[in-house]
Structure formats: C-alpha cells, structure tokens
Design brief:
Elements (H helix, E strand, L loop, with lengths): L3 H13 L2 H8 L3 H15 L4 E2 L5 E2 L1 H23 L14 E7 L1 H13 L4 E7 L6 H5 L5 E4 L8 E15 L1 H7 L6 H4 L4 E3 L6 H10 L15 E3 L3 H9 L5 E4 H10 L3 E2 L6 E10 L4 H17 L13
Parallel strand pairs: 3-4, 3-5, 7-8
Antiparallel strand pairs: 1-2, 5-11, 6-9, 6-10, 6-11
Helix pairs in contact: 1-2, 1-3, 1-4, 2-3, 5-12
C-alpha cells in the first residue's frame, strides 16, 4: 500500500519547488517534509526529488506526483457526494486543485472565462507555448492542456477548439519610419520585431507565409529581423503601441486599436490562424469533465471556427 502522507509531502515539494514552501503548505516543519520524502525514496529504492533551486522531480517522482493529485481530486469529489465522510488522507477537505498547461495568449483572451465557470476548484496554471504545452501532459505534470497538437497524448482525449487569430501589427509611426516605401522582405529584415520567448515561432511563421520563397526542399527563405524579447501578452500590445517593434498580436486584443488607428497591420488582410486543441486526461473526474465542457464552450464561442462549406477559418 502507498503511504499517502509521504506522497503528499513529495507532491508539495515538487509543486512548490522547495521543502520550506511545502512545509508551509502542509503545516509541518521542513525537517518533517524532508524526512517523509527521504523515507518514501528509501521504501521505493529510487530518487524522487532532484534537490536544487527549485527542487524538481525525477521521472518516478513526477509519476507519483501525478498519481497523488489524481487521487486527491477523486477523493475531493467523493467527499462532496458523501459529505459524511471524514477528510481524506492527503488533504484537509478543501477544494481540489486542477493543474493545467495553457499558452499565455489564450490565458489573456478567453481561458479565464472558462475557469470562472468552475467555481468549486482551485487552478494551478503552467504557462507554455502552444507548440510545447502537450509535453506537460506527456510528462504527467498536468491533467489537461491547451495545445496546438491535435494528436492525443496517450491516456488523453483531444478536442478542437478553433483557431486563435493573430495580426502583424505596429504603430503608424513605426510603419512610417521603417517602411517608407512599403513593407517588403528587405525592409522587414531590418525592422525590429517583438518575440515572446525562445519558443515563440509566430513571427517566423508569419514571415515565412508572407515573404518566404519556395525552394526545392519545400522550405521558405524568409527574413530574420532583429528582435526585442517581451515575455508578456499585454506587453506585446504595449510595445507595438509605443513603436518599439512589430509583433503578432491576438486579434481580439488589438481590434479596438486597429479601428482607432493606434495600430496598423503591416500587410493588411494577412492574418495568421493558430489552431488550438483541448487535451485532457481520461481519469473519471466530474470536476475535470465540467472544466472541459466550459473550455470547449468558451473556446468555440471565441476562437475562429472552420467554415462548414470550405473547411477554412471563418471570419
């Protein structure tokens, strides 16, 4: 039998990143947390925590952490169905926590509305690029993810949400300074752009689509402009408004600025649509199922949907 107080200590260390914060969460001393994790490692004959700043989990540690969080979620739901039950072995009877991976632009535009429809739980969000968020599911770090990958991760279901539409936008002053003769490949290769982080490929994808040239290998030769690194969705909009550079901004965040003339499209009528999918674990959780329904409603009512006749994105 698994010892759940020991597993709770392990999960707290891996989720908070330190023995001290885990101790605060569990209302015990850091020494007690360390002893529990050490005892669990001795019983299993395997290292579960890589000690550091922050502490991280080994493959075995992450798998056990995923298990204990799934059990905690299911036991939380059982307590709501059978209120006479005592508090479980891992929690104090409080609401369950759902750990979800989501890209920053979805969080800034539509995902919070889905979260608000599930008030009976807590959220622990992991921010990552949509091209990489499915990796958190594969590693057992999260129960669900908003991802650009349509292929279901083993043990998960995948549902299309629609496409998040981006516009290549900049301030009128920036456009006039950098593109006095129009936006072409030579000029945009010299003009500073905005990039979220090293994983962000949106600007590169748009450049390949608009300015890339076909080659024998099917790859496009596209401009590679200098870049500012701005790891914030709203700072992207602010940077474009300030004339710092151009960037791929979610249409819903810049529509008002475009209409008022505070921002302009670099190449009008050339948006970039990024299809998104909701992948969630198949565990029999009513809370996760309720969140999935809310996410699908919010995504499909906000994101661009394929036209029923052409199969292309509408709008």
């Amino acid at each position: 039998m698994l010892d759940y107080p020991l597993l709770s200590a392990l999960a707290a260390v891996l989720r908070t990143g330190s023995f001290e914060r885990a101790a605060q969460q569990l209302h015990v001393t850091p020494s007690a947390v360390s002893q529990r994790v050490k005892l669990l490692e001795e019983r299993l004959g395997s290292v579960l925590v890589v000690r550091g700043q922050p502490c991280t989990g080994t493959a075995a540690g992450l798998r056990l952490c995923q298990h204990v969080e799934q059990v905690a979620l299911l036991e939380s739901e059982l307590r709501h169905a059978l209120p006479g039950l005592p508090a479980d072995r891992m929690a104090d009877g409080g609401p369950a926590t759902l750990r979800i991976a989501v890209n920053a632009d979805s969080l800034a535009t539509w995902f919070v509305a889905a979260m608000a429809e599930v008030p009976g739980c807590l959220f622990d969000l992991v921010l990552d690029d949509q091209d990489h968020s499915a990796d958190w599911l594969r590693q057992g770090e999260v129960l669900a993810a908003v991802t650009a990958s349509a292929t279901p991760v083993p043990g998960c279901n995948s549902h299309p949400l629609g496409a998040l539409r981006y516009r290549a936008t900049a301030s009128p002053d920036y456009r006039d300074r950098h593109f006095p003769d129009g936006v072409d490949a030579a000029a945009i290769a010299r003009a500073p752009c905005l990039t979220f982080n090293r994983k962000d490929q949106l600007q590169a994808q748009w450049l390949r689509r608009v300015f890339g040239t076909a080659s024998g290998t099917g790859a496009g030769a596209a401009p590679t402009p200098p870049t500012h690194w701005l790891p914030s969705t709203h700072a992207f909009v602010d940077g474009a408004l300030a004339g710092l550079g151009w960037g791929m901004n979610p249409e819903s965040l810049v529509a008002g600025h475009l209409a008022a003339g505070r921002l302009v499209e670099l190449v009008p009528g050339r948006p970039l649509d990024v299809p998104l999918f909701w992948q969630q674990s198949r565990i029999a959780s009513t809370t996760l199922a309720e969140l999935s329904r809310s996410v699908l409603r919010a995504g499909r009512s906000t994101l661009h949907q394929p036209s029923p006749t052409t199969g292309e994105d509408a709008g």
